[in-house]
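Journal club prep — side note

Before the paper discussion, L.F. wants everyone to see what a predicted structure for a comparable chain looks like in token form. Sequence:
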Amino acid sequence: MEIENPNYESQVGRSVYPWHVDAWEQFNLENLPQAILLHGQAGIGKLDFALELSQAILCEADLFSSGVKPCKECQACRWFETANHPDFIGLVPALYQHRMPHAELEGMPKPEVEEVEDKEEGDGKKESAFIKIEQVRRAIEAINVGTHRGGQRVVLIYPLEGLRPDAANTLLKSLEEPNAQTIFILLSDRLDRVLPTIRSRCQLIALPKPQRAIALQWLSTHLGSLSEQKISSEEIEASLDEQGGAPLAAKEVILARRLSDDKDSMALASSATRLLLEALSKGRDIPWIDCAEKIHKAPFGILLACMQRWLFDIQSAKQAGEARYYRRHEKHVQALAQQVNMNKLLKLWKLVLLARRHENHPLSTRVQLESLLLQYQQLFAD
């Protein structure tokens, strides 16, 4: 499907990304399942889609007369946009709180800020990537009473894999015996990490990433209006490739490079991945201890994803002659592909995959990084 206008507006909703229009138009707002599981690659706009759908469900405009939901004008829509709708419950970890509607008034369940001490440093703090069971329990208690507006209630949970096992089991009980007035909108970046028992009780909707041309057009349009500094098409293309074709992730990375506040989480992640790529490009000469020391405070999942894509590029260059993600590092990737021991590379690939399954666990990030980077160095040993 070709879409010329990057700001395309669906006839049913206002803020749907062009690449999600087909998925949006599958929904019948008058007949929705009680549990919807939206899944797809991180950085493609799933949370924005889910928030728009939540607002459409709660919108009090007459769909048949207005033709558009959410209308953005009714009282329910205004409440939603200021995070004060009493029938909307959004559960996200502290790490994603900034992406939710913000409230100026008190009175509704809001995402909680939970800071986790960095045990490796003793005085630093990290934002939690988990949804606490207390949040889930309070949400379940809330849905056992009638809705405030007499309509439906929406419970949005993102990311679903951010639920600890006890919280996931608590959610499962509510999905098994659903409240007729409650609709669950669940989101997952990694569907393989979601309990099969939860998946089986939801209608699964796969949200796609855009075609490369559409993603580049969207990025060029939106970055041009958000940054005072001119951003080259080469930087946009390279960032999109490095993020696996996810435009929102590419946008965050590009803007993070222009932030002066090194404590910002995205700026920290951008700086750390740059240092990691510089180290990985050195092959057997990688300063693995120094690298781990400099980058270990960045989100571990982002570092692992970077390393996983780098290993994929070496394998791809070895077998197919070209890199997929880090094309700006093509020269280094090609040189390393000529030196790599493929058997060792495949073993390290499996270790990185295993580490990604436990990336949010409170283990020592620095120790894990040192181990992985040391084994990376040995891929090129004689």
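L.F.'s comment for the group: The beta strands are 35-39, 88-91, 115-117, 125-127, 153-157, 182-188, 203-206. Keep this in mind when we get to the figures.
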